[in-house]
Write a structure and sequence with these properties.
By secondary structure, the protein is of the alpha/beta class. It has two domains: 113 residues, Conserved hypothetical protein from pyrococcus furiosus pfu- 392566-001, ParB domain (Alpha-Beta Complex); 136 residues, Arc Repressor Mutant, subunit A. Helix content is 50%, strand content 14%. It has a six-stranded mixed β-sheet. A two-stranded antiparallel sheet has the order 7-8. The longest helix is centred in the last third of the chain and has 19 residues. It is elongated, with a radius of gyration of 28 Å.
């Protein structure tokens, strides 16, 4: 006679059913966000189709007759909502030093992590295991450049990281804004991005324009959030400054549809806008004064 609850043993893992109350969540879980609406949708799916993927657990290191989640907390939370008594699990032999790595791999393979959660997990693994980026890339099957680019997102100000977590912006938006020097400039760009609902391409263009402007504008002394004014490495040659001003002129000409000239010297200057008829003057006036 077969026994539905008898474990099926495979190398380093066992398939079995356990009480949901025996499972304790993993404090090293890479995933931090569990939106309520998403959990309700998953609970409804499980109610109709059942649990299609077992939870991954290990024996709890300090509690008898308890298991610790390695991966599957979202499913665990949905099952708690349904008040399910027993659930299918894969019991694995996982040591404390492997816990974060295995949990990260499980979540990456199921594409369960936000870009910030994934980046933070990479950082935690590098710090706790002493891996190089090359070693970590090999272990999780990613390119080193992918890991490096992902971890750069952790340099974002908190509001931008929160925007990424909640889906208000994409990683493409965030990487563009990271090119800007300093928190205040990045947050200013964020406000404009959200206000006008820019695409990634438009964000990249606006960032380039801002960098052009910053390159020819002297920084205020003592502004710690701005590029350093006296840094010899950031000083541009006259030819480079002329190129930046030309870029700004071309952008204004494109927007105003007329000839524009910028004269710039030591933080002061003039913007000359040409018009060639009364009708064109009225068009420019309306354009410049409209809200």
């Amino acid at each position: 006679m077969s026994n539905d609850h008898a474990p099926l043993d495979l190398p380093d893992q066992t398939f079995l059913r356990v009480s949901l109350e025996q499972i304790v969540t993993n404090p090293q879980q890479p995933r931090k966000q569990f939106p309520e609406k998403s959990l309700q949708e998953l609970a409804q799916s499980i109610k109709v189709q059942g649990v299609l993927q077992p939870l991954v657990v290990r024996k709890h290191p300090s509690l008898d007759n308890r298991y610790e989640l390695v991966a599957g907390e979202r499913r665990w939370r949905a099952l708690k909502q349904l008040e399910v008594s027993q659930v299918p699990v894969i019991l694995r032999k996982v040591g404390d030093d492997e816990m974060l790595e295995v949990a990260l791999l499980e979540n990456i393979q199921r594409e369960n992590l936000s870009v910030i959660e994934e980046a933070q997990s990479y950082k935690d693994l590098l710090q706790s295991h002493g891996y190089t980026q090359e070693e970590l890339a090999w272990r999780i099957g990613k390119d080193r450049s992918t890991i490096a680019n992902q971890m750069r997102l952790l340099q974002l100000p908190s509001p931008l990281k929160n925007d990424l977590e909640t889906g208000r912006i994409t990683a493409g938006h965030a990487r563009s804004i990271l090119a800007l020097p300093g928190t205040s400039v990045q947050l200013e760009m964020r406000e404009r991005l959200l206000l006008d609902s820019w695409s990634v391409r438009e964000t990249e263009r606006q960032v380039r324009l801002k960098l052009d402007f910053l390159a020819v504008s002297p920084q205020k002394k003592g502004d710690k959030n701005s590029a350093t004014a006296g840094d010899s490495e950031t000083q541009l040659s006259k030819a480079e400054k002329d190129a930046h001003i030309q870029n700004l002129e071309e952008e204004l000409q494109r927007r105003l549809r007329t000839r524009v000239e910028i004269k710039f010297r030591e933080g002061k200057g003039q913007i000359k806008i040409d018009y060639f008829s009364l009708e064109e003057f009225e068009r420019l006036y309306d354009l410049l004064t409209s809200s």
